[in-house]
């Protein structure tokens, strides 16, 4: 009988249709954790209902223009728990994003209990690999201007502010930075 690896493991995989409900719960939890104190309860409730329902997550998982990646923590007993996710999508990039085939990182969240444990870097590595697999030569995203932790992480990963856009939470239009960076070809060495 093969031995089980000792200690917890973090894995990243593509989401499947059966993940929609669990993803819905994690997506709402992580968005609420990140932004509830900067929004009214009404705007937060409206945003969560519009964007994180199980049917909405199922549609995003099934969308051929999207890839949803899940980070899971598997404990010593072999029980897997969803702890983070990323949503990569082929969308129309703003004019400030360069590249002939840019791709958007629409969402990127890790459960608060796993911040600082390397999960975000593992998940971002998978995002970059997926973007390259999809033929992208640039990666872009929008990040709330009042989210310094996320901005610092994206800067560590080589993204830079190239513009701004409006992101509406409920009825509240908020300012996001647009951050972007070129992606090296899969067989080309990347910058350290």
Q: What is the structure about, briefly put?
A:
By secondary structure, the protein is of the alpha+beta class. It is 31% helix and 32% strand.
Tell me what you see in this structure.
Helix 1 crosses helix 3. Helix 4 (119-133) links the parallel strand 4 (102-110) and strand 5. The protein has 192 residues and is an alpha+beta fold. The radius of gyration is 17 Å and the shape is globular. It has a single domain (9-182), classed as Gcn5-related N-acetyltransferase (GNAT) (Aminopeptidase). It has helices at 20-35, 41-51, 54-62, 119-133, 148-156, and strands at residues 9-14, 66-74, 80-89, 102-110, 138-144, 160-169, 172-182. Strands 1-2-3-4-5-7-6 form a seven-stranded mixed β-sheet, with helices on both faces.
Overall helicity? 25-40%
Order of helices and strands: EHHHEEEHEHEE
Largest sheet: 7 strands, mixed
The termini sit apart by 41 Å
Say how many strands there are.
Answer: 7
What proportion of the residues form beta strands (DSSP E)?
Answer: 25-35%
Q: Using the coordinates shown, work out and report the CATH topology.
A: Aminopeptidase
Radius of gyration: 17 Å
Q: Do you know the CATH architecture?
A: 3-Layer(aba) Sandwich
The strand order across the widest sheet is: 1-2-3-4-5-7-6
Topology record:
Blueprint (H helix, E strand, L loop, with lengths): L8 E6 L5 H16 L5 H11 L2 H9 L3 E9 L5 E10 L12 E9 L8 H15 L4 E7 L3 H9 L3 E10 L2 E11 L10
Helix pairs in contact: 1-3
Features:
192 residues; seven-stranded mixed sheet; Aminopeptidase; disordered C terminus; alpha+beta
